[in-house]
Prior knowledge:
This protein is 39% helix and 13% strand. By secondary structure, the chain is α/β, with parallel strands linked by helices. It folds into three domains: 2-26 and 295-345, no CATH class; 32-105, no CATH class; 111-281, Rossmann fold (3-Layer(aba) Sandwich), CATH 3.40.50. Strands 9-8-7-10-11 form a five-stranded parallel sheet. It has a three-stranded antiparallel sheet with strand order 1-2-3, with no helix packed on it. β2 (8-13) and β3 form a beta hairpin. α9 crosses α11 (272-281). The chain starts with a strand and ends with a helix.
Amino acid sequence: MLTSDRNRVALNLFGLKVSISKSKIWDDQPGPYGLHDLIREYAEIPYWFPGVVAQHGWSPGDEADANDVYNAKRLMLCLSRRARANFSRKSDVRCEISGAPFVHYRRYKNIERAPEANGTVAFPAHSVPGLYADFDHAAYCSELRALPAEFQPVTICLHHSDIATFHLDKKYAALGFPVVSAPLDGTRPFCDAFYEILRKHKYATSNEPGSYSFYAVEMGIPFFLLGETAARDNTATRNIDVPQRVYRITDFDSGQVAAQMFSSGVRGRISPEQKAYVDAELGLEDCLSPEDLRRVFMEVAASLYYRPSLFRQVLLALSYAIRYPFSATRIPRFFATVWRFGRMAAR
């Protein structure tokens, strides 16, 4: 008798029960916002190993993300010194500064603001898991319309969840604004789509600081805050990483610092203070080089799968081929990579 579910195939042969895993011993998914793919490309590593977690973007929080602390069993990759300090206060797991994968991608691909760039791209405060970003959208649009001619036209860039869950694309279209979004449905790499939107504009704005603020300034696009800061109601504790109450980003010390940095009014230039702040928050002066990050992954691979004896390494590979038959044809190459990583890490 053969039964199957999402993760396993179960065989019952005359009372002998055999369970076969459909999963893989490595992670070949792109990761949130494609971050795993971006880091693999930056460090030139073929696999993403279990227990490795990458910070998904800039955070205003003054503590590490609880999910990151829970899931990072082997290695945590943070954007900056501040983020690493936050994580290390909560966990003894190794934590390294990878810098911002989006920025590594932009620089590697030589993506710059387009010569024909014009107007402003506005990133309205977006919802986070379980929490709607509550503010007056109509009033916000009125402030965008009132921007000086130099900053017109204004294009609204929405987070995919605000389209899929709250249909805000229709609301902003009804208010007279063109709407764009970087998709998260796998049809196109998110990072590529995001920068294609950003590079077409001379300025960027939002009603609260977010990752887009830092990516814009790093690229040389001035960013400024405009409008009412969003409120999020977490009284039902739908999100364990934020206060159990109605809160705003500016309730966090780091969120307040970011808000003050970009609240100097509508402006068409980047100040030296803003540039230094953005560089620090994105880890641009502190991040590991591709070579150093590759070595970190080698050490993780070695700690998980490497055996100094070639005979024992082959035996381990065979055992995994039996346990994971749906990946059996790729396991020899995987363990050849682990062997190479392990030998290099041991030097």
